[in-house]
Each structure stands twice: as C-alpha cells, then as structure tokens.
Amino acid sequence: MRSLSWRVKLISLFVLVLGASLLFQMFYIVPYIREKAIRTTQLHQEEIAFSVARELDSDLNQSKDRLIELSTRPEVRSMDFPRLHDLIRVITQGSYRFESLFVMNADGWFVEASLDDLSAYATKSYADQPYFTIPFEKGEPYFAHPRFYATTGLVGTTVGVPIESDTGEPVGVLLAVVRLNHLIDLVTNYPLEKEMVLYVVDREGTVVAHSAIDLFALEEGPLSLDYSDWPMVQADIAGKGGESQEYEYEGTAHFCTSAIVNTSGWEVVVTTRMHVILAESSALTRWVLIVSSMLFVGSLGVTLVFGQQIMGAQRRAERALKLSEERFKTIFDHASDGVLIAGTEDKTFFMGNTTICEMLGYTPEEIATLGIADIHPEESLPDVIEQFEKQLHGEITLASDTPVKRKDGSVFLADIHTSPVTLGEKTYLLGIFRDVTERKRTEETLKEYSERLEERVEERTKELREAQEQLVRREKLAVLGQLAGGVGHDLRNPLSAIKNAAYFLNMALEKPDPEVKETLEILKKEVGTSEAIISSLLDFARAKPPTKRKIGVSEVLQEALARTAVPNNIEVLQEISETLPEILADPDQLRQVFDNIILNGIQAMTEGGQLTVKSEAPAPGRVSVSITDTGAGIPEEQLEKLFEPLYTAKAKGIGLGLAIVKTLVEGHGGIIEVESKMGKGSTFTVRLPTGIADEA
Fold first, then answer.
1. Averaged pLDDT score across all residues of the chain
2. How far apart are CA 374 and CA 389, in angstroms?
3. Which of 34, 39, 326, 692 is the most buried (most CB within 10 A)?
4. Is there a contact between 128 and 173 (Cβ–Cβ < 8 Å)?
5. What is the DSSP letter of 242?
6. d(CA 236, CA 238)
7. CA angle 625, 629, 632 (to 5 degrees)
8. Which tens digits make up the pLDDT trace of 80-102?
C-alpha cells in the first residue's frame, strides 16, 4: 500500500503541474496578449476617430461662424433687401463653403435667396420647420440632416442661424446649404491600416462618408446607406456615443471606436474585425494547445504505467461497497414504506429498498444513479431542497404532502420521515416515503363538495336577492303607472293655466321691469320642464305599439339633430350614411329615441366637447346608429342600472328617459347598447332590423 500511495502521489503531481500550467496559460498569458492587442487597436482607432472628428468639427464650425458673422452685417440685420440681395450673391459666388444662401423673415417666409428664382419657396410660411424655429425661438444654430442634390452631385447640409436687430430682437433666420463633398473626400482618402474601416453617420444612422465604399456609386445615391441597426450607431442615437466597444454584427465580431462631432452631433466610427486584431493571440493559443497536448501525452503515459495497480485497488473498493449495499438492502427491502438513503452534500441516492423502486418505477440500479432533483417536479424542487436542509439540521423530521415524480412522469404525494445515519465516515439522510395520494384525493373531494355547496348557496342567495329586487321594481312601476294615469291630466290643467297666465302677463305688460321679465321667463321654462316630466310619465305608463312605415333612418336622425339646441362650446361631427336601406319603423318614436340620447350627450359635456353622430349598415337587414360624447363618462357600477325606470345619475330628472328609449327600441325588435370610459366619454348604439324582408 505504501508503494501504491507513492505512485498515486506521483501521478497526482503530474496532473497538478499540467493543470497549473494550462490554467496559467489559458487564464493569464492568452487573455493578456488578447487585451494588449485590443488596447493597441483601441488607441490607434481613438487617434484616427478623434482626429477626423476634430477636422469635421473645425470645418463645420468655420461654416457656422462665417454664417453668424454674415447675420450681423447691417444690411442683414435691417433686412435691406436690395443690398441684401447683392451681398448673398457675392458671398455665394466667392465661397467654396456655401452652395446657396436664404433669408427668412420673422413670419417664416423666404424673402431673399442667392437663387435666381425664389418662387418655389415663396408659396407659404415655413415657421413650423425646425430650421426656422430653433434659430428664431431658441437663438441656437441649427444643423439639418445631410441631403444629396442629384442635379449638382452635391452632398450638403442646411445650417441656420438667427438674425437679430440692433436691439437684440429676432427678426429672421439666415440659412445656408453647406457643401460636404470635401469632407467626404477627407474620410474616403484617410490613410488607414489594412482591414480598418472609417465612416461617418448622422444622428439618424445615415452614412455620410465611408472609407471602403464609393457612396456616389450606389444605385440610390450617396445617402442611401443606413447603419442605424449597427450596435455602435444605435449607442450614438441613444446618446451613448464616443466610446470603444466590441460587438457582433451579422455573425462577425468587430471592435470599434467612435467620436462625436460636437457641432452637428454626427459620429465618426473606426472599426476593425476581431479576427484581424486577434491573429497573433490566436497563433499563441494554438502553440499553447500543442504544448499542453504534449504534456498531457506524457502524463497519460505515466498514468498507464501505474493504471493496472490503481484499477485493481478500485475493483477491490467496489466489491467492498457492493457488499455493504447488499447488507443494507437486506434490511430495508422488507419495509412496507419506501426507503431512500441520500448523500447530504451532493443529494444523490446511495441506495433504496424494493418498495421505493415499485413506487417510483425504477430498478435498484437506476435508483443508485439518481438524486433528489430526479424524483421531484422541477417547480417543487426549491421547496423540496429547503425541506431537505431543515431535516438535515434537525429542524424538522417530517415533510408533509411532498410531490414525488415517478419514472413515467406522473406525480404522487408522500409524507417523508427522515433521520440522519452514518455509514462508514460519511453522513447520509435516511428518508421513509409513505404515499398519501389517496388520502389527499379524499380530502380534495370533500373540499370540492364543500366549495360547490357554498357556491350553490351563494347562487341561490343571489337569485333570491335579484327576484326580490325585481318584485320591488315591478311594484314601483305599478305605482308609477297608477300615479301617471291618475295625476298626469290633473297636473296638466293647472300647468296650462299658469302657462297662459304667464303669456297674458307678458303680452299685457308693454315694458315690464327686467326682474319681472326674468321671472316670467323662469316661470315659462319651469312649466315646460314640468310638462316634459308629465309626458315622460304618461309615455312610460301608456307605451303605444309603434305605427310602422317605410322610413329613412338618416332623415329621422337629421331631424332630431336639427331640433336640438346645441351650445356653442360643443362641436357636432356627423358621419351619417346617405345610402342606408329603408326600414319599417315609427318615425315619431325613433325621433324620440334620438332626441333623448342626443340631449343626454350634450348635458354630459358641461365643459364643452365633441358629439359624434354616426349611422351605418353593419350587415344585410340591419342598421345601427351610434351617438358618442366626450363627457365625463359613466361609472361602471351605474351601467347595469342605466336603463332601469326611476334610476338616474343626474342631479335633476326622474330616471325615465333611457327606460323609455329602451322600451321604444325593443318595441321595434332592436337593441340599445352603451360603452363608457371615465374621463373619455360614452357611446350609445341603437341596432335595428330593417324589417323589409320580414314584411315581404
């Protein structure tokens, strides 16, 4: 055994040296060379990107400063058009920067330009465009996105600066189309290393210049290349530009560095493919693998020399372990409950008895290859492991109703009693499994029966409550009918007398006092309100069947709108179809329906709003009318009771208007629906059958 221990130690030493060498090379040397190569590339890219960005920034700043200097000229400040016209033509003809110059007045109109013909720009005000609003309102220079002028082959950008009077007040905007072709040539001809690419993109990701692509040779023109989906450009659009990073695009790894052109917000990007940067690192990695393979072969040779003795020792250890397992199996195989012994560290099973094999559907050999994670559902595993740890530390000895998964995937519930046991020098946890599925099924059945009984009691109680409410409602309606029939005519007679008296007084008094005149108007208005209430009571109590004839719904709807007084702060939007089919209906009743809904919509918009009236034929033989307001909306709890008699959410009213509407619509074989959102408004929809086919 001493000789064997020495050989094992020697082999272990070889393996340790090999592992340490591999770890040192793979986790220190190779990453170091890789990072050094990337850092060198980054410094070079930064030098190029910032150099180009400075040149672009300097050139654009000079154009901006020249434009600002022009805006301070006396003829520009004073808008002296004859002198201004000559000035901008001279500047344009003698400048390599400016393709053209434009002057806009304080109202956003183009008033002067270096062009021969300004008529194309003088048809309207451009005061809503950013090239006017930013310089004029904020007093800041404005750089537009680059644009390609196909007729001249020019790529340019529009720059705008404010024009201020001598007192500092803005009086207009000076615009210039700045040539960019020389900046594109700068990028195209910039000296770069092999496989290195330099390009410039604007704030939206459009490529303005590219060192590897002739943009003017593209079929759609020089500004047709879009890099907005490139990660580096997306970072710039998101305001995170001006950095170096590694990214992958279309399966190829890149390393790039960007710099921001402060004047215009454009981004200068220098990029190199990673395989070019890491060529040296890859070669070193291959060399390390060769050396490591040689070391591995040498260590393998040493292992083979002593392998026979080591394998013999392993076989003897396996026989001893098998004998120990058989002893424990003899004890546990006769238990009526399932028994499993699990390791406390790796949570794998050491052994299990026959009963647990039958419970789970595994053979004893398969049990020995499993662990806790294999016999419990994945979703229950965190709770099972938590219970295992508590049992291991003696906090609990029973895990009740634990889900256990069989080999076929089915799940049963078990109570698991545990206790720690020591076998040799290792501690295990012995678990006794008892299937409680049948017991739980019985408990669930009783629970379901109890819940169903409670639900049936609740349903029956709800039905009784609704029946009681219906009975109360019917009693109210009966009383209402008697009240309307008995009192309606009695009330109308005195109201008519009051109305006639008010009319007589108004006619008799030639020049009544303002207070008297106002009182007579109030009296007349309130008499009309009372008559409307009485009419509603009588209409509801004595509902008449409709007198149907062929009518046009759109005409009835137009009449209802025409006779409704609409406040000035409410806009009526009509979407009334003129091609609706005729229907069989009572025009007076439908007019009453539409009058009521339109009036409700107007009353709902106390602060003003929009009333939309729409008619359409959604299907053959059907027409629908929807009336939508933008009022405060109807609370959800009030929607169910909205059409009930005597229910109202208004401060004034008796709650019969919508009840009558529903009765009249249903009398025509139709339905009425309502949709409402708080703070958004409500929509009432009346759906009616045409009735023409039915009559035929």
1. 82
2. 17
3. 34
4. no
5. S
6. 5
7. 145
8. 888 888 888 888 888 778 888 99
Rounded (10°) CA dihedral 582, 584, 589, 591: 0
Q: Express each pLDDT in 222-271 by its tens digit.
A: 888 888 888 777 777 777 666 788 878 778 888 888 888 888 888 899 99
Token pair for 49: 């990107």
Q: Tokens standing for 297?
A: 């072969």
Go through the chain and tell me how many residues it has: 696
Q: Would you give the DSSP letter of residue 243?
A: -
Q: How far apart are CA 260 and CA 246, in angstroms?
A: 18
**What are the residues whose beta carbons fall under 8 Å from the beta carbon of 558, sequence distance 6 or more?**
576
Task: Say whether 503 sits in a helix, a strand or coil.
Answer: helix
Residue 156 to residue 144: CA distance in whole angstroms:
9
How far is it, in rounded angstroms, from Cα 229 to Cα 250?
11
Q: Which contacts qualify for 4-9: CB closer than 8 Å, 24 or more apart?
A: 4/309, 4/310, 4/313, 7/306, 7/309, 7/310, 8/306, 8/310
Q: Which residue's entry shows tokens 């099924």?
A: 441
Low-confidence ranges of the chain (pLDDT < 70): 1-15, 17-19, 21-22, 24-26, 28, 240-242, 288-289, 292-293, 295-314, 325, 328-329, 331-332, 466, 469-470, 472-493, 495, 510, 525-543, 646-655, 692-696
Reported pTM: 0.40
Q: What is the pLDDT of residues 530-559, one digit of tens each?
A: 665 666 555 555 557 888 899 999 899 998
8 A C-beta contact, residue 157 and residue 145: yes
Q: Tell me the two tokens of residue 154.
A: 């020019």
Structure tokens at 472: 């109360």
Q: Which residue reads 């340790």 in tokens? A: 16
Nearest to 358 by CA among 406, 288, 420, 291: 406
Dihedral sign from CA coordinates of 358, 360, 366, 368: negative
Interatomic CA distance for residues 397 and 420, integer angstroms: 10
What angle is formed at CA 255 by the lines to CA 250 and CA 260, rounded to 5 degrees? 105
Max distance between CA atoms of the chain, in angstroms, equals: 140
Least Cα distance to 431 among 461, 469, 402 occurs for 402
